[in-house]
Amino acid sequence: MVLSYLLSMDFSCLLAILLIVVRDIVDAILSARQLKFRSSSFSFADMKNFSPGYIQDRFETWSNNRSFVDFSLMINAIALFAFFVPLLQVSWILSDGGKRRISSLAVVCVLVLTGAICELIVSLILLGIHGTETWIGNDFNLEDWTDDGGDMIGWRVLELVHTVLRGMTTWINAFEWISIFGIMTTLFIVVKSERSYSHSNTGAETFGIKWALLGLVIGILGLFDFVAEILRLQSWVTFVTISFLVRSINMFILVPIYLFILGRQLPIIKGSFEEWNHSDAGKPLSPDENVLGTDTS
Questions:
Q1: CA 146, chain centre distance (Å)
Q2: Do 140 and 72 meet the contact criterion of CB atoms below 8 Å apart?
Q3: Is residue 39 part of a domain?
Q4: CA 219, 171, 247, 221 torsion: positive or negative?
Q5: Is 203 exposed, middle or buried (0-12, 13-18, 19+ CB in 10 A)?
Q6: Which of 254, 259, 277, 232 is nearest to 12 (CA)?
Q7: Which of 6, 46, 100, 272 qualifies as a cystine partner to 54, CB 3.0-4.6 A?
Q8: Membrane-spanning regions, if any (predicted)?
Q9: For residue range 266-296, what is the model confidence (pLDDT) as tens digits?
Q10: In angstroms, rounded to a whole number, what is the distance separating the alpha carbons of residues 98 and 59?
Q11: For residue 191, how many C-alpha atoms fall within 13 Å in the half-sphere facing its CB?
Q12: Are 225 and 246 in contact (CB under 8 A)?
């Protein structure tokens, strides 16, 4: 029964849910592994002072988890692409196949492409950074840069470069949530107006307002996540915690529920949309027809 229920869902939504769940599991494993380091060795003061001992411990922990980190980066980019596919379908249906609300369709398409491409670029950049940092940390001399020896300057430089490079990708990486906020807000506005339109057009199925409201909540939380990502430089512990909590609520709970509901609605609405567009009711009046639909010849 469960299998038949899942098979009745839209495939793109089902695939997106699967990828997001896999991503969540990988992130949970990674967070659990990193928590061990934070509880035993993490010190914000040591981090700000570029303490060599702290840097080496962090590098060792990160190296041991690098496979999870890299896999998490790629699965996150792929999951975001998969998440955006059904949203494009929704936008296309709400625009009546590009016949109405062209501006809304254009906004969603631009945000989808921009958000997905930015996430992919950041993931590829970070993969390259991780590979180079691992190579430098394992094979290069980072401990003896002066005549005295044991100065550990190399480790400090590596950590400084790592921090700067991560800072360069922060805005780009956080932009995905700006994209999601814009997409969800646009879809909510369009769905709300579409409800009144569908009531005056028999046979035109549309998306539920509660589902659209859930999307708006996801978008607003995503906006909070974006702000927390940017403000973490003002208070690292506070805003990292806020970002983690908001992202966990969104990705572990709300987004899968959102996709599950959409997956149940989308096949029905797509069928109604295709039937409506192939019927005479869904076609524009010809020049030989008046507004009442009668032939003037």
A1: 46
A2: no
A3: yes
A4: negative
A5: exposed
A6: 259
A7: 46
A8: 71-93, 105-129, 171-191, 211-231, 237-261
A9: 888 887 777 766 654 444 433 343 333 334 3
A10: 51
A11: 22
A12: yes
Contacts of 179 (CB under 8 A, 6+ apart): 111, 112, 114, 115, 118
Q: Which domain holds residue 173?
A: 12-144+155-275
User: Which residue in the block uniquely carries the two structure tokens 């990828």?
Assistant: 19
Residue keyed to tokens 């993490």: 42
- Residue 232 tokens read as 């973490």
Whether 138 contacts 62, CB under 8 Å: no
In a domain, residue 7? The reply is: no
Q: Do the Cβ atoms of 226 and 178 come closer than 8 Å?
A: yes
Structural domains of the chain, count? 1
| DSSP alpha helix (H) spans, the chain | 2-7, 11-40, 44-48, 52-64, 66-94, 102-139, 153-199, 209-231, 236-248, 255-278
What token pair was written down for 167? Answer: 């800072």
Residue 280 belongs to a domain: no
User: What is the value of pTM for the model shown?
Assistant: 0.82
Query: Higher model confidence: residue 34 or residue 163?
Result: 163
Phi/psi for 208 (5° steps) reads: -70, 145
